[in-house]
Structure formats: structure tokens, C-alpha cells
Amino acid sequence: MMRPVKIISLASVLVLMSPVTFAEKPEWAGKGKPDLEEIKSSSDIEDIEKRIEDRDEELDELIEEKKEKAKKAKNKKDKKKLEREIEDLEDEQDEVDDLKEKLKDKKSGLEKQKEKKADQVHNEVDKGSEQGQTKREENSQKWWKFWE
Questions:
Q1: Which domain of life, per UniProt (predicted)?
Q2: Is 135 or 24 the better-scoring residue by pLDDT?
Q3: How far from 97 is each of 13, 47, 90, 104, 106, CA to CA, in Å?
Q4: Residues with Cβ < 8 Å from 127, sequence gap 6 or more?
Q5: Cβ distance 113 to 40 under 8 Å?
Q6: What is the pLDDT of residues 49-84, one digit of tens each?
Q7: CA nearest neighbour of 61 among 18, 28, 110, 21
Q8: Of 17, 20, 83, 108, which is least surrounded by CB within 10 A?
């Protein structure tokens, strides 16, 4: 008598847990938030911008989908659950917007730093012999000015 009960209970647990275990993870899962402190180059900025934009679009779609489900939901329990999910998604969207602003600031900071380095006058230009100075000038020419 106990054997069919065990089989039925085990089967029901497996049926209920299988969608959770076989669910496909979203593309962004496991990557975490991009760390703006680790940004070193403009290609890093572009990669992170793309990830943030993708996540923002995904959140927009999820919010719209949840709002549609909330409109169609019949009972209050489902509506409340969907409203909470929408609020969580909107909070995450606010965080993504904050990341966008921080990334924009970081990007402008990197651009300023590049400009400073490009305009920076070399201190050693007036040091050394004439022969050393001419050699230094030859070596310090920018690679894109190869016609000079």
C-alpha cells in the first residue's frame, strides 16, 4: 500500500521540479554587473555599453510582458505577484540606468586622459647633446605621421 504512494509522490516532485532544473539561463546570467573600476580601454567601454544596452532592452521587454500578464490575470494573488515582479524589474532597470551614467562619466574621463597624454610635452626634449636630441626627435614621431 505504501509503495504506490511513494511512487506517486516521487513522480509529482519530479514533474514539479523538472521545469525549474531544465530552464534555460538568460544570456547575461552569471556575468554580474560590469565593474567600472576595471575599465582600461575604449574597447572595454564598448563591450560594457553593449552588455548594458542588451540588458536594458531585455528588461523593457520583460516589464511589458509582465504588464500584459497582469492585465490578463484574473485573481488578486497572481496580480500582486506580477506587480512585485514588475517593481523588481523596474528597480533593476534603474540600476542599469545608473550604470549607464557612471559609464558615461568614466568614458569622458578616459577621453580627457587620452587628450592629456597626446598633448603632453616631453620634459627630456631640451636635455642631452644635439645628436641625442635629434635621435630622440626621430624616435618620438607619431607612427601615423610616417610621411614626415
A1: Bacteria
A2: 135
A3: 40, 16, 10, 11, 14
A4: 133
A5: no
A6: 888 888 888 888 888 888 888 888 888 888 888 888
A7: 28
A8: 20
CA nearest neighbour of 100 among 146, 39, 36, 37: 36
Pull the grid cell for residue 20. Answer: 525549474
Q: Is the pLDDT of residue 148 over 60?
A: no
Q: Are 81 and 63 in contact (CB under 8 A)?
A: no
| Distance (Å, whole) CA 67 – CA 79 | 9
Q: From its phi and psi, is residue 34 left (phi > 0), alpha (psi between -120 and 50) or beta?
A: beta
DSSP 85-121: HHHHHHHHHHHHHHHHHHHHHHHHHHHHHHHHHHHPP
Measured in Å, how far apart are the chain's first and last C-alpha atoms? 95
Whether the predicted model's global pTM rises above the 0.85 cut: no
The alpha carbon of residue 24 and the mean position of all alpha carbons in its chain are separated, in whole angstroms, by 20
Q: Minimal CA–CA distance to 56: which of 95, 101, 102?
A: 95
d(C-alpha 84, C-alpha 76), whole Å:
12
